[in-house]
């Protein structure tokens, strides 16, 4: 048969290709081995970052203020007796303000929040014709966020709460804060209470509702208590009913948490497609939450002081979520969304029965896993605003808690 090309130029088999084909199995095994090694190195590095403790990670956090005010007392809360004057002054008198190009009022961090100069601070207030009493109240309000715990021994748990001087009278505010103080003192825990209005400069930039302030407060608490193990956010419309219950022994110990974790639980009950993982190790849980209706309940939830928890707070507080128009319950809806679409966070989340840390108040006696029952740890007045009964319920449950 006649060839179409000169016989001496007949193509020869490429020796490299032949050898490659001959050793394909060995090469595949080597590639797989290298991939496994890389994955193990990455996972080990991330695990070390998570378990390194708050000391390594917290140094990367920064305060909202230029300088700190060190305190040795782990019970950090504002001067509640200032509430009437703060309400009288109004938030416009507490911050510098400006109107942007769109006509939106912005609240600005004043000199008191960024400088330590006492003389500069006094000149600022005197120019506003404030009395000495108003000067003291305003200064206390603006500098409260600078407090940072520097005691020799860090509390295991810090209870974080926001209080609103525009919403409640001094009587109710005292009961809310004293409830946390009484509980924390019983177990050598810390508390971190801030005025909701302190975060107006951050909220006004995004035209965000007060509900989002909890994330700024949590971030500030993590900075103020860098070595705490857990942060328990508890809404002001909630009351600790059992001072005798130690949160760590009661829930946060992995051996205790494991059997009560709701595994394969829909994130959006009752028929949501995305569910909690069946094999989540309780020792790896960084977020403990409950549910109310079709939402994650953020009236009472716990974050472990880890790299992942800090990442969650930053991500959850992103401008994209705050500006999204289709989150009916604001921060709660945003967290529900995050857990559905970001499996890394879901893998470190435990959903527990509501009555564990957030039993819902009910006008009638209900015996279920959702509503508060006598002897439960915590009660949450979730719908009290709609019923216009918040102050009444605070007074009622405060009296019950203190009578024990």
From TrEMBL:
Domain of life: Eukaryota
Organism of this sequence: Cyberlindnera jadinii (strain ATCC 18201 / CBS 1600 / BCRC 20928 / JCM 3617 / NBRC 0987 / NRRL Y-1542) (Torula yeast)
This protein's GO CC annotations: mannan polymerase complex
Lineage, opening ranks: Eukaryota, Fungi, Dikarya, Ascomycota, Saccharomycotina
Keywords: Glycosyltransferase, Membrane, Transferase, Transmembrane, Transmembrane helix
GO terms for biological process, alphabetical: protein N-linked glycosylation
Pfam families (alphabetical): Glyco_transf_34
UniProt-recorded name of the protein: Uncharacterized protein
Transmembrane segments: 27-46
